[in-house]
Design a protein that fits this description.
By secondary structure, the chain is of the alpha/beta class. Among the domains are: 2-105, no CATH class; 313-361, no CATH class; 372-549, Single-stranded right-handed beta-helix, Pectin lyase-like (Pectate Lyase C-like, 3 Solenoid), CATH 2.160.20. Helix content is 15%, strand content 40%. The chain has a 21-stranded parallel β-sheet that branches. Strands 5-8-11-14-17-25-28-30-32-34-36 form an 11-stranded parallel β-sheet. A hairpin with a 2-residue loop joins strand 22 (331-341) and strand 23 (344-354). The relative contact order is 0.06.
Length: 549
């Protein structure tokens, strides 16, 4: 080591003969010309680590460790290392190894199998998961990991992973599969199947799959839902809910077959969801891909959502006439249908409503199921959705807002660089009559549509499919909405629909470089505009007559 350090010091002193080189090593020269190397230089022969040099400064300050050549000349083989240097080097090396081991062990791993989980897809592993979580959450390591191993299929009943935890970050890594119990396994529909609550620095990631086994729930809802009745399965549990979590991240998981919504985020801040996939078949009602509420600073990027939309076969005609329904402010017509989906015949109601001052023709529309790919609810600020794929499903919705006369506030939403295909809606803002508040500063940009029923929608008369939606005097105000750089095709004639409140019309709407054509050969796409104000820029097809150019 002495020989190596001698060569190292030779290089320093040789370079220090030049004035410019002396300036390069101001910290290497002690008072009276003594060379003061740091302990890390002895270990690694480097001159780059200033922090460790500072740590060793006080220890080395009082001793003249290296005898320099006279007149600051270049030392030759007479350079000697003191025994103190050798001891210091050994001590620093030992401490560095301890620090390396500590850095490695900070990611303590807690495997539910070690706490009694079976992983055969049949046994209830809920208690083992909760014991593993309690150990991980109570760990004092910097970043404990609860690992669901790839070797098993773990069945859980309703579980809640709660905080606060001792660590500043905690990981929940899913390498294997998690499944819900079979059948209608709970009568409590007020909470999700898996909940994470009151946590900071939560990171849920992995390549595993979380399966909600929702088929029995979907069948129950399709069979029992009737208008003007209280259905047995009006709601169903969501797969996963995150509530009151700051600094939450999710990456890479696969969610399938949810009884209700797949993922919900509530009352959380600084959220990033990346690279997840959501999939449910066509006979899955109200299975939103991702629902965001009361949350701020949210990013949703590079994810795929397929929330169950299929065409169905209609067997019967309308019960209330086939056309000529008058509509002044709002009118609805409905059909009592039998539909066949995946070989199962279900009875349902099909609504079709528009707000016109003239008679309208009604046409059959295939029954839609599933729900929004991404839904952004009240209390959301600074939400960015980018590079997602949505389809089938109901598109991306801001809302619904203002239900049952409540106040809703949404501001600063951006949906960009995304593709919608075979969806009922593309980008939609929907509010209930009678509500209050605002939805403003919302931008949809660089969007591509492929065979979307209604690519662009603002609906201030939304009633969730209820019959006879009232025209009330208050509404959630919609303003400062931007549609920029949008292309694609629509399967319905009215590709653009702005249906706004008479008392609180939509304001400051911009359509800039929007081109949407009909996907039906020989047909032309059109628009409908009611109480909407704004302007267009560059090319806009179809024309929107209520917006100035």
């Amino acid at each position: 080591m002495a020989e190596n350090y001698g060569k190292f010091s030779d290089r320093i002193c040789m370079e220090s003969n030049a004035t410019s080189a002396l300036n390069d090593y101001p910290r290497r020269l002690d008072f009276n010309g003594w060379i003061r190397p740091s302990a890390w230089e002895f270990l690694f022969l480097t001159v780059d680590n200033v922090r460790e040099e500072d740590e060793a400064k006080e220890m080395l300050r009082a001793r003249r460790l290296i005898k320099p050549r006279k007149s600051m000349g270049c030392p030759q083989k007479d350079l000697q290392l003191s025994p103190y240097i050798m001891g210091t080097a050994a001590l620093m090396f030992f401490l560095s190894m301890i620090r390396t081991c500590a850095a490695t062990s900070k990611h303590a791993i807690f495997n539910p199998v070690d706490f009694g989980a079976v992983g055969d897809g049949k046994s209830d592993d809920s208690s083992a998961f909760l014991r593993a979580w309690a150990a991980a959450c109570g760990s004092e390591g910097a970043s404990p990991v609860m690992l669901v191993p790839s070797s098993g299929i773990f069945m859980l009943h309703r579980v809640s992973f709660s905080g606060p935890c001792k660590a500043s970050e905690i990981h929940f890594q899913v390498a294997g599969n998690i499944v819900a119990p079979p059948g209608l396994w709970t009568g409590d529909l007020t909470s999700a199947w898996i909940t994470f609550i009151h946590l900071k620095g939560l990171f849920i990631n992995g390549s595993g799959k979380i399966d909600g086994r929702g088929r029995m729930w979907w069948a129950c809802r399709s069979k029992n839902v009737r208008i003007f009745k209280s259905p047995r399965c009006a709601t169903a549990p969501d797969i996963l809910a995150v509530a009151f979590c700051n600094g939450f991240r999710m990456k890479g998981l696969h969610f399938v077959n949810s009884p209700g919504r797949h993922v919900t985020v509530f009352a959380s801040q600084w959220v990033k969801i990346e690279g997840i996939s959501v999939s449910s078949p066509g006979n899955s009602p109200n299975t939103d891909g991702l629902m965001i509420q009361q949350s701020k600073h949210v990013q949703i990027v590079s994810s795929n959502f397929a929330s169950g939309v299929v065409n169905t076969t209609l067997f019967s005609s309308a019960r209330l006439g086939e056309r000529l329904i008058p509509g002044y402010a709002i009118s609805f017509a409905y059909f009592y249908l039998k539909q066949k989906t995946n070989g199962i015949i279900n009875q349902s109601f099909l609504f079709y409503g528009q707000r016109y001052n003239t008679w309208i023709d009604l046409k059959f529309t295939p029954m839609k199921k599933g729900d929004d790919c991404v839904a952004i609810g009240t209390g959301c600020f600074d939400v960015n959705v980018s590079s997602i794929t949505c389809g089938p499903g109901h598109g991306v919705s801001v809302g619904s807002l203002g239900i049952q006369g409540t106040r809703a506030e949404v501001e600063g939403v951006r949906v960009t660089s995304s593709h919608f295909f075979n969806t009922m809606n593309g980008v939609r803002i929907k509010t209930w009559p009678g509500g209050s508040g605002f939805a403003k500063k919302i931008t949809f940009e660089n969007i591509r549509f492929t065979s979307v029923f209604y690519p662009i929608v603002i609906d201030q008369y939304y009633c969730g499919g209820a019959l006879g939606c009232p025209n009330k005097t208050s509404a959630v105000e919609v303003s400062d909405i931007r549609y920029i750089g949008m292309r694609g095709t629509s399967t319905e004639e009215r590709a653009i629909r702005f249906e706004c409140s008479k008392k609180f019309p939509c304001r400051n709407i911009l359509l800039d470089n929007v081109i949407i054509s009909s996907s039906v050969k020989g047909e032309t796409a059109s628009s409908f505009c009611y109480n909407a104000h704004g302007w267009t820029r560059r090319t806009v097809i179809p024309k929107v007559p209520c917006l100035s150019q």
